[in-house]
Amino acid sequence: MLSIVGAKHSDVGAVAISRMYFPNEVFKRPWWWRANRAYIRRKAVRGLATEIRTSRARSPEEVIDPRKALQFVWLPDAQAIHFYDHHEAHALPALFYTDWDSALLVTADGAGDNVSYSHRHFKDGKLLTVNTWHRRLPPGGIAHLYQAVTGALGFRENRHEGKITGLAAFGKPVLYDEIVSHFWVTDEGLIRSKFRRTATLFNYIRQVAPRVKRKTPRHLCKRLSRI
Ligand SMILES: [Fe+2]
Q1: How open is the CA angle 208-184-128, to the nearest 5 degrees?
Q2: Burial of residue 85 (number of CB atoms within 10 Å: 0-12, 13-18, 19+)
Q3: Which terminus of the chain has a smaller tally of CB atoms within 10 A, N or C?
Q4: Distance 158 CA to ligand 1 centre (A)
Q5: What is the structure's pLDDT at 136?
């Protein structure tokens, strides 16, 4: 990645990274954890987002050693590391394109940082997290729809969903009414669908996709899929 912009490891001053999975050694452990580690379920890696939540930490630095984390990402000389919140990162770009001084920011995702939905309130220049939903998405949720469409159009699932979103701006909403009729939003703000099983949703999308697939520029799909 660095070579693309002609940079070296030593050129990196600060790192912003997701609350992803890190090896056990990178986490700070209390004395009782170290004393009982033989009895604690062995896992090679642990998710930072989960560790923060289960230990009720107020910041990532309470549970992870920033220096060791920088070593793990092969950037030991960087001066600082910041562990960004997945849903906050989703929410902020929407806010940047407004001039509002008060806003409710709602995100709906698969399970980034093990969170499926979040509500944040922006006011007086500050962003307050109102609520997050850690529960697993029910089968057939909106994130599975993104995944199904990505695969059905010839892209790689769990990787190219962002490209599908970008390309959608160049297309026409041919299937919008058809697809959206299977989804609704609950009073809590959660998205639900008629599909009882994820496989049923994927089959449905595979059935309807050929109606728009012909219009997808094939050479563009191929080129973008390689990235
Ligand atoms: Fe996400």
Answers
A1: 125
A2: buried
A3: N
A4: 10
A5: 64
φ, ψ of residue 206 in degrees (nearest 5): -65, -30
- pLDDT tens digits for 179-213? 999 998 888 777 888 888 889 999 999 999 988 86
Q: How far is the CA of 56 from the centre of ligand 1 (A)?
A: 22
**Considering just the CA atoms, what is the radius of gyration of the chain in Å?**
21
Q: What angle do CA 38, 42, 46 make, to 5 degrees?
A: 130
Q: Which residues contact 73 (CB under 8 A, 6 or more apart)?
A: 15, 17
Average pLDDT taken over every residue of the chain: 85
* Virtual torsion, Cα 5, 161, 158, 83, nearest 10 deg: 50
Query: Is residue 113 a contact partner of residue 85, using CB atoms and an 8 Å limit?
Result: yes
Confidence of residue 223 (pLDDT cuts 50, 70, 90): low
What's the gap in Å between 115 CA and the centre of ligand 1? Answer: 9
Ligand 1 centroid – CA 89 distance (Å): 9
Instruction: Give the position of tokens 């990162």.
Output: 89
Quote the tokens at residue 7. 């940079």
Q: Determine the Cα–Cα distance for residues 14 and 7; give it in Å rounded to an integer.
A: 14
